[in-house]
Amino acid sequence: MLEADVWRDPKALPMITRTNLDKRQGRLLHQLTPLFEQQPFLDTTSAAAVYRRLREDLIAAGARDSDFECLTEHLIGLVIEHGSAVAPRETWRTLLDLISTGFAHRGFSVLVERGVLVAVDFAAPPTQH
């Protein structure tokens, strides 16, 4: 199980569901899945560039900063689903760090149980001055 140093109650962290998405966000999720499945980004040596490029592609398709919570949750779920049986814990930490810096542009913690994403706890968004 991957978990944060300080973890809030997972019941208080509702996962984003398709019913909570608007049409644009649903369309973006449908774009993210095939982009990921073309080349599952489980290789820590190339993932940083790939996650950055994936973010750029989604922004070009109309994604806004506010969309990246649901897109990040979905990307984390895809990474876990495609590699949960093969990747050691340190690889997961590295991949999650790369998603945080290259894709989400925001910190987060995840709770994974038995290879299933249970919750994502996002850090507060950066303050804009």
Describe the 3D structure.
The chain has 129 residues and is mainly α. The protein has one domain (10-122). 48% of the residues lie in helices and 10% in strands. The protein contains four helices and two strands. It has a two-stranded antiparallel sheet. A hairpin with a 2-residue loop joins strand 1 (108-113) and strand 2. The radius of gyration is 14 Å and the shape is globular. The termini are far apart.
Question: In brief, what are we looking at here?
Answer:
With 129 residues, the chain is mainly alpha-helical.
Number of helical runs?
4
User: What strand order characterises the main sheet?
Assistant: 1-2
Give the terminus-to-terminus CA distance.
37 Å
- The helix/strand series, from N terminus to C terminus, equals HHHHEE
What does the main sheet amount to? Answer: 2 strands, antiparallel
Estimated radius of gyration: 14 Å
Helix content: 40-55%
Beta-strand content: 5-15%
Low confidence ranges: 1-14
Give the total of beta strands.
2
The structural class is mainly alpha
Supply the number of structural domains.
1
Shape: globular
Average pLDDT for all residues: 79
